Prior knowledge:
The chain is mainly α. The chain folds into 3 domains: 2-56, no CATH class; 63-156, Type II secretion system (T2SS), domain F (Receptor-associated Protein); 166-405, Receptor-associated Protein.
Amino acid sequence: MAGFVYKAIDREGKIVRGVLDAENISVFYELIQEYRMFVLSVRERSSFSTALSRITVKRSVTRPEIMEFANNMAIMVKAGLPVTTSIDDIARSTDNKYFSEKLLSIKRRVTQGESLSSAASEEKGLFPDIFLRLIKIGEETGRLDSSLQEIARYLQTIEDFTAAVKKAVIYPLFAVATTLIAMFFWIFFVMPKLVELFQSMEVELPLITQLIIAGSDMAREKWYIILGVIFAIPLIIKIAKRNKIILYAYDQMTLRLPVIKLIAYNKLLALFSEQMRILVAAGVPIDRILTLMEDVIGNEVFRRAIHSVSDSIMSGNSVSDSLKSHSIFPSLFVRMIKVGEESGSLDEQLGFLSDYYLKKLKDISDKMEKMIEPIVMGVVGGIFIVMIVSLLLPVFNLISNVGGR
């Protein structure tokens, strides 16, 4: 896709300059017409400038922006406005130029006869998978506005999940980062000066100070190895997780670690409940729902359990009985699903479970924040105490020697 630098007159009669990405000059003029501007001049940017722009200019869409798009689309479609008109209005009102261009591209495809789900799916990576699936379901069932509302609610739920998790970890991360900066300054700037001073005065160094100095020397001499290990560990984990056996073991570990499991487990149960509720409310068959859930759940332990549940249901068992055979689904979850099956209110029960586990996740994050704070303070305080003691002991020995003379 090439970039075109243009000079044009906008709808208010003002001269504007800008850059627009398009497949070719013909598509460029189609996009410009969508913006209702009259082109005075246009030239294609060099490949280097185009590549540089793609690196420096924002070319992403945030979850709140997609949520706002879904919510606005739902309101407009429900009011009876055509899909193309709705997309056009939203594209012109958004502040994200990249998103605006993508929406106008989608509108152009819809105008040419494509469905909204098909046109949106051609913009690779723009929308999450469940967004595209629900749009397609909404088109097939004639309930596009309802599907869009469900998308907005789902994305809001994800935002709540993210906010709850961030709230729990932001303080520990800040404390650890501050400590690492202090240690960096101590090791690379303070310790070398102190070592020179102690050596010049022939002060006998205690063991703790010797260990700190040895660690400082190693960090300064082998800093590139330490830095390489820090960057290599996440990369190794990412590559290793491509192996199904390692991925399963890794995901299983996250569900067993004392603190992490509280967040990971409740988040997965809440997401599973919410996504399943949306698809049940949309009228998707239960076997198809579980197949879709396998693709989007994001945890190999849950994925395998869902696959087994799907096979059990296809063999004639009920959803609750199939879930009951897997310990990963708690008894409350199974009971609520059973009630939903027997009463015909499965989507309502799933909505209750989603809200329940989301509330539980928020409560956990609040408790973790209060629980982790003293632990982190203790660890950070301990590190600083070791640093101070390693400094003061040689000074105390020096003063004692001077006093003894």
